Amino acid sequence: MTRTAWFHCFAGTAGDMTMASLVHAGADPVEVAAILSGLPLDGYALSFEPVLRCGVAATYAHVAVLGEHDHSLLDDHDHDDNHDHDDNHDHDDNHDDDHGDDHLHHGHRPYRAIRDLIDTADLPPRVRDRAQRTFRLLAEVEGAMHRMPADDVEFHEVGAVDAIVDIVGVCAALEVLGIDRIVCSPITVGQGTVHAAHGELPNPAPAVVELLARRGAPSRGIADRKELATPTGVALMTALADEFGPMPAFTVASVGYGAGTADIPGRPNVVQVVVGTEVESTRTPDPGQPVQLFETNVDDATGEVIAHTIAALLTAGAYDAWATPIVMKKGRPAHTVHALCDPARAAEVSAVLVRETGSLGLRGTVLQRWPQQRDELTVQVGVHDIAVKVSGGRVKVEHDDAAKAAHALGLPLRDVLRQATEAAHRELD
Asked: Which stretches of 169-217 are assigned E, i.e. beta strand?
């Protein structure tokens, strides 16, 4: 039996809303607080209260930080997430500029300090791993946007406490509910601009768009100028979701609604989570997840061009891309280039396939797929974090992470792969 949580982000998503939805779905707030107490962190208070949003019963989570004046996640140099506090969603990424900039110059916590804080905390292994994955993705995105190493991205002291409590709190609530698998709907975002410390930024925020792009996560925009999806909320979904799509076939156990601050007329300002159990079976489940297959035959492309095309298809969000050698008319050697993707990304993936191969046409088929349950953990070789996928007792080391560590350590790649695999097995034992 697989315990699954499906997050329905029809009104957007935010860190505190996600945590509140899980508490409303049955995660005992006392147990969540007990897990959070394993963090070497003080100066905050976490509370939950019942509310109504557009007539829907929901739970609201509030993190009160000692000396709280500002709710921005990043400092004034990392302002892409410091949006106008429009009372729509959580406080982890919103910034009320009415206070001015002088209060931003409290202490700061670089990502490396937050990573070490979580790593040394007394947390259940799965809580630690999920929290580290989320913060690492958020720091990598912010670092890339601001042209700095991820380790150097600085979180404003108050905002860092908010973000730590929200992210670790979500992971703690998932653990209390015994969630093994996470599925997320397309994430709704707003339009227009939002006000930040240094001026107007596009809505959705740059960090939100980059997070969605890195995971190839589906999203949809609606005509609302509020910041519907915050970077912390989107980081949680893109880091932790095993897949994106409609509610899976399972037996529903509970449902929860996590409330944003405002009660918006005409649309419940909530994140919905549905918790249930999927029955594992040896037979192929029916129906499967719809998936689009594109193919084209090329006889005038070099191996290097085909390799580049496959890489570009994966970057565009294809689930998989590959090439098959064939023989065409007049005995010409050629290749069929294939791309498998979510139907929602069909336009982007097909455009890349045409552009990179120079093909005059494509063919396509709608298929079904049955992704198997997989988890991800992070191990260290030397001082380098390496992601490892775990499925059915089998571990697979993330090649790019291992290659970077091998280069930095001056070791053969095969040695780093072996050490990472052994570390993963020790973690699982």
From this structure: 181-184, 187-189, 193-196, 199-202
